[in-house]
Fold these 3 entries.
Entry 1:
Amino acid sequence: MRSIKSLVLVLSGTVFLASCGASGDDQGTEYAPNMYHSVAYEPYKQIKDKDAGRWVTSIEYKDGHAEYYNSNNLNPHQMNMREPAANTVRRNPQGWLPYRLPNDSVGLRLSDRLVNPLDSTVEVLAQGKALYEMYCDHCHGAKGAGDGKVADKYAGVPNYKSDALKNMTEGHIFHVITYGKNLMWAHGSQLNAEDRWRIAKYVKALQK
């Protein structure tokens, strides 16, 4: 009888351990699988298959879909976000409109007329300095003299204190940060409009 019990225990243990094996899409037997596998929404990927992630599903959804399904049946094309209303323009949290000047010589010339919406407060300048040190210092140098650590690798990094640049406006600086110019690449995708204005404010402070 003992040998039979031992055999049953060994077989049961073998089956249990074998069920934990994982390969490919089969993750084996897991305790609380939705704790191990993220079910966050994929912003650039829409999953319309209601059975996607069935193997990891542990919650009973009303319409029976699995964990990875992320479409919204209440919206057109099952989108998760609605399209903006026609003829509307997105504003940032400060209520500013998108920057519209073109990336050409006309836009660069017109940027001189722009007025920085931020005041020259201690806080704004401190924030501008922190951003400058993060994004600009390595080329333009701590004092804006064009002597950053990588400036010797790229000839032509401008000196902000030179006679040719000492009168450039904050709008001009903002425009160049947005689109780039000559050796400098565009930073409009890395820095939001408010941060670009902060850096422009700090650069003018450096020139003084």
Entry 2:
Amino acid sequence: MEVIFIWLSERQKKIVKIVQEKGPIIGEEIANHLGVVRSTLRADFAFLTKSGFLGARPRVGYYYTGKKIFCHIVEAVRRLKVKDWQAVPVVVGEGAMVYEAIVNLFSSDVGTLYIVSEGGVLEGVVSRKDLLKIVLGQADIQKIPVNVIMTRMPNIVTISPEDSLWSAAQKIVEHEVDSLPVVKPVVYQDREGLEVVGRVTKTTITSAFVHIGQHKYMQEE
């Protein structure tokens, strides 16, 4: 995946301003305003038209599309795909004991475990809070199966690899969860289900926006 950050150089900003004020205007006239030859601006014109800041018509020249830089940033953010940012899921079998689940959760340093059956099919979710409740209840955690305390399907909020990271963030906020299992449809032993192929967490979202802030990642169509 090739990615770019839609960020204008000072010269590109000047070009956009000239076109806003004087467009439609041909490339030679823009170059005259900037005191350079047209060939010097070839790469700038290509970038600005490809990015959608400017339009171009033969024998007419360049014109301003009306889009703002902020709009381009929003559009680029919305094109970030879950599949490009998802982390490896941490799963345990539905027959595992609560004690094993706790060990897995802390050794993997995650906030949520995904409970799966054969074939990696999602059956449930267990959070730190769920595990803390059972421990504080002084139950024998080495004898209680994790599937007794898990949240079961279909009461689990999921996300697809092809969905946008923006959608994942919306779901995390709306449902007040720490993470989402990334799933895809699967048929295992004549049974339809959802296979866990990744996870998206609050940390995932934060990391993506940190990269954006560093002017590194904006997906190019």
Entry 3:
Amino acid sequence: MPNFFSAFASEVFRPIVTLLIPGAIGISTWFIALLWSFPDLKDLVSKNHAEAGLVLLLAMIFAGLVLEDFGARWEKRLDDQANKQTDQLHLSQWYQYLRTAFRADPTGRGYLRALVLRLKFELGTAFAMVSAALGGIWLALVGLGWKAAMVTELVCIAFVMWSLWEACETHQLLAQTRAELLKGIKIVGD
């Protein structure tokens, strides 16, 4: 019997990981700074939870889409760099993979999908942390103590560096996995 919820879960999980989480991180410090800077806005939000939540959700989705776009541009840079390092083999294999139709779904395709999701999360998080760090500067200007502001900025910088490093590693692993899937699939009987 097919599991209806497993397909639904992956369709829900992907936008949460690639849009909502990076979007929430990206706007978090800005939202707090807005509430600290404008007491009337803070009062409006506290009296209208549902409406404020909806506006915040839309802002998170919008920010997530913008951050995903920045991530896609960075991924293009990684592709161009890998292509130069492999004498044009990287993009050739990528386009060959895109033109491949598999009769059976190899185990590696699920792994590849997980790697793509991870790459999108890493790149989205890196740019979300840049946004959060910029919002942290505003927080420091409106009253966040210098120690807390410094810790916030250091955490954001550390996450940017870590996320970009992880994205480079994931990008290489994606290329290796695609190259292996292009070699052919072994189908084993019962």
